[in-house]
Amino acid sequence: MKRYHVITFGCQMNFYDSERLMGLLAERGWLPAETMETADFIFLNACSIRAKAAQRVITRLLELKPFKKKRPELLIGVGGCLAEQEGANFLQKVPFLSLVAGPRRLLEIPELLATLDPQGPAQILVGNGAPQPTRPILAPDRSVLSSSITIMEGCDNFCAYCVVPYLRGRETSRPPQDILQEAASLIAQGCREITLLGQNVNSYAPAGASLGDREPAFVTLLKKLASFPDLWRLRFTTSHPKDFSARLIELFGSLPVLAPRLHLPLQSGSDKVLKAMGRHYDLQQYFSLVDQLRRAQPGLSLSTDIIVGFPGETEEDHQLTIEALEKIRFDAIFSFKYSDRPQTRAINLPDKLSEEEKGRRLTQIQQIQRAITLDINQALVGQTVSVLVTGPGRRPGQMSGRDGTLKIVNFPGPPELYGQMVSTRVTEAYHASLLGQLAQTPETEAKSA
Length: 449
Ligand code: 5AD
Ligand code: SF4
Fold this sequence. Notes:
The structure is a single chain. By secondary structure, this protein is of the alpha/beta class. It is built from 15 helices and 19 strands. The strands form five sheets. The chain has a six-stranded parallel beta sheet, with helices on both faces. Helix 6 (109-113) links the parallel strand 5 (99-101) and strand 6 (123-125). The longest helix has 24 residues, at 355-378. It starts with a strand and ends with a helix. The structure holds 5'-deoxyadenosine and iron/sulfur cluster. Iron/sulfur cluster is lined by residues 155, 157-159, 162, 164-165, 199-200, 240.
């Protein structure tokens, strides 16, 4: 029996891709290896969104050199966006690789492994290959309670800083019947929460959908998923603010299964910077979208992405971003220093900021947000929140899970609560989690009683 060891970096889509790869390997009789020492095939699924992410992967790969030296029959491969970006050049950095496979070629790997010579030349798979299977492929032996499903791949937006359209290609949507079938099999195995993934899920447009349709294909898909009686929570990420339809806004008020949390990347609070980024909305339009969403679902929690130090960003622009954060009051932000990426338009823009200045702006934004997050969390003390229990808590005797708005809640409780939806009363709030007490019998028991 051959054994694989897959290590994943980067976004949720990379994790999802890795699971499909492991599922296909399992179909061909491969087993997971507990450690790298016992693996016949080590695969790093890598990210390239920022230079730091890419560098981390190279360092990790170079650490594998002694393994290959000791066991020349070992196959080592690299995949994902970084593999797509580097292609054959990867071999100059990491010469002992047997395989380089971009995100659109990942599922060709299991078949290829049957004939790949560990001492022979490396296989380079980049760009578009044969169509990838869209059918459900589930990784073996994983907890399905809270699962993700990729519904679309790639991006057509070409924001000035972003490498994704070059590495994951144009937007392609999976057929709805494959997604529904995958959801059905996950739910049959005990899945209760599904997160739909895509670079821009609200542009979901499978073959056969047309602009004349009564509602966007994504809205139809959400409604169909909502009709599975054993699905308790539905989430999706990521959405581009410019593509948010009125029908989708309405759903937040009308579909109870849609969790009250939305990730809506803002990137900057300055119209000048948004324009230079090619985001196709201004701050006023973003505020208006937030207003409409909060009207549809008053309990909606928002998170966002912010890039600090985009080329040409002045101190005034930076202050406008801070003002936007203070006005909108996101529950959480993911903030990054602008990083030059190959092929993107921004790489050629003048007025780049120093690492020091970007670092200063990032620290300032993160400190301000930390206080906002803590404030929002503390307002929950005394309130009751519903928690899907996904595992043990931080301390002995505790269980843990997330509420509808994705906040981590730890609370004293027995392991039997795993997989249940429970009500907890929040007793303490920190910046990254809440502490609660069980408020009553598990909601799921009450439901079936
Ligand atoms: N530099 C910094 N941050 C970036 N992101 C994407 N590209 C870059 C870049 N070149 C951030 C954006 C995006 C998130 C996934 O990563 O905020 O929304
Ligand atoms: Fe990148 Fe912009 Fe596409 Fe998001 S929408 S993946 S930031 S190009």
